[in-house]
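_Backbone structure tokens_
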Amino acid sequence: DQDAYTLLDVGAVWTSPSGHFEVGVFGKNLTDEEYRVGGYSFPGATYNNSISAFYGPPRTWSVQLTARY
């Protein structure tokens, strides 16, 4: 079982006064929380039970540039 966890995602977008340009900065999982998004148990697959888990992505940053014409 997995304990409860919290993810912190933020984003900010600046739009030019003309509305033709935008710049955005985004961050996901800013606390770099390690959490499972799925997993499997394989009883008897080895000498002991085997457990496989899939983890969510670590802290990520992105920048978005938009031009409208």
Notes: Residues 7 and 29 are 5 Å apart (CA to CA).
